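Blackboard transcription, Thursday session:
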Amino acid sequence: MKLQKMAVAGTLESSDIMVTIEPVPGDGIEIQLTSPVEKQFGERIRQVITATLEQMEVTGVCVTAVDKGALDCTIRARVRTAACRGAGQVQYPWGGRRV
Amino acid sequence: MKERLRRTMLYVPGNNPGMVKDAGIYGADSMMFDLEDSVSLEEKDAARFLVYEALTSLDLPDGEYLVRVNSLDSAYGREDLEAVVRTGRVAIRLPKTECAQDVLACEAEIARIERDCGIAVGTTPMMAAVESAAGVLNAREIAAATPRLMGIALGAEDYVADLKTSRSPDGIELQFARSMVLLAARAAGIDAIDTIYSDIHNEEGFRQEVRLIKQLGFDGKSIINPRQVNVVHEIYTPTEQEVLQARAVMEAMEEARRRGSGVASLHGKMVDRPVALRARRTLMLAGATGYGGGEDEVQWN
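(Written on the board underneath:)
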């Protein structure tokens, strides 16, 4: 998935995470994270963000994430939303049965 | 289709992570993630991803889960179905159903997705909500449109706007619609779910409405706040006397069955199939609250 513009998803409400992504030169994934639970879960949050972007084949991206205690599923949802918005993609390849 | 209680169907705004993760902890019989009216147009994609991720990775408590998708006529409905049908764990609530063809169009889309992702065709249940004069008048054909339908619900907010009126405390403006939806459901052998009561601060008004719809025969009510769960369940819970009477009826019918008869006598009164059906429903409701009934007691047919 090719990012074309900056995009935002999520809110600053409790249990959510606001994810801002923007395309940057190169093929890296840079993450700037703010979280009240950064000491305990910062590494985990970064892993979830990275894995989600890799699964979507998004590279060359800078992510700014402001976490408010989001679960993994919320982090994945917000990253996917931001990436699709940034790529201008309105239909998502949902794939096969997940459960 | 498995028989289950649907006394409470709790709306959960699909783009609120806190509410989505806690949806199952309040004890409602059914939890309905909403992708439609509670989600702004700008956030439809975000809500869809959030509900999809929650359904596929959260360890949700036991219970029935539904997703209210956007209308298939909108720009979002088909993508909503693409996302949630393939999770294999929800029923689909179709909003603003006007005629049987709306149900069949949605069913065809669901079947296509089931085939695409290897789910047995026909396993995703559906529920239709009627929210307009046309929908209410067509309730009978809607309720009978497909065996996938497990229920039909009344959505009163749009309905009263369509009637050019507003909701009143006694609900007289909903009299016809409630009767129509209920009769359509019963004729089709599916559940009837009443509309929401939106004034969450008026508990007495809410209680009055729940008592009314229970007496009419509705299986349950759509609710918008967890604090409404216990009120509905309390009103739907049979009294101790009703439970004792229901047990006696079931025992009398079992005794009659052993004798090869379909009719029994209890305290000098005739007990037959309709009486037994009511007793069975009473024990099912009692069993849901751990109050007197139980699974063993509701197996009788």
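Lecturer's comment: The longest strand of chain A covers residues 17-23.
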